Amino acid sequence: MAKRPTSQNVADMAGVSKWTVIRAFTPGASITEESRAKVMAAAGQLNYRPNLLARSLATNLTHQVAILVDDFENPHKLPVLERLTLELQAEGLVPMLVNINERFGHVHALLNAGQRQVDAVILFGTAFRNETLQDARLEGAAPMFVLARDSQIPGVPAISCDATIAIEELCAHLREQGYRRPGFMAGPQTLSTALGRRRSFKTFWVRHGVEHVPELPAKSYSMTSGAEAVRHYLQETSAGDRIDVLMCENDALALGALDVLRSEFGLRVPQDIAVAGFDNIMFADAPAYDLTTYEQPIEDMVKTTIDMILGRRERQTVQLRGRLVVRGSTKRT
After folding, report:
1. What does the record give under GO molecular function (predicted)?
2. 3-state SS of the chain: helix, strand, coil percent to 5?
3. What residues does each domain of the chain span?
């Protein structure tokens, strides 16, 4: 294997010092355009690329960002990851995806990321808890950011869709359509990821005279769990006592519920039971589902997170407004 060219090789060919080569590849460094042009020409001929690892030792920055994900069953994750990694790379940052599971927990992942000297950690999942992330071993860890979820962790900013506004808009639409017996399907709840959607949903209906809002608990944010939850509810509840609209905490749950309502119980949507979701995933607008949902402002959330990581914006919790998308699964008129 051929030996890689060094900065000294480039300097010799360009007729400049080694430090001039280093400045030429350092954004914002002081160097004349003439010297930069010489360095770049020589680097091109030698096929030279700067050693980022060596640079990180000098700057104390690795330009690596760890992304911790713990619920890959949720189809909403893919478009967000696509946008997030695209924007990180555009800023010269290297995303490092970490699969959190029963064998590789959050503390283990954060300690591992610390050893790799990542510049920041983005928590993009549902299972992390306050007490876990406040483990004494994590003292001095890289700055953490929670994306697309609420956070109750002191010092850890959350960048999310404003759940209060979103649910208010969704519920106002449902009430306008004449629904009066609402139910809510919630995914697994943890201390630090209480999404606020369930709370806002119940608050709206209590304010409008509906004291009891049945809850359909789901084991995970997946179509399978959504199907299981609605199946159990329909089996245990007589037709006359059932809800007339089901709000699901995310679209994956809603799609699973729709499949069971129609194919297993022969119910009409929305005539017998209406269904709404949250996220506006790629399958939501398919004719088979035609799901009313709420679209999160992914691009704005991602850009806000990266601005905080790069110090262009103060690190603080931010809630952004999304967009209501009305489709046939709730429209009576």
Report:
1. DNA-binding transcription factor activity; transcription cis-regulatory region binding
2. 40, 15, 45
3. 7-50, 62-161+299-322, 163-295
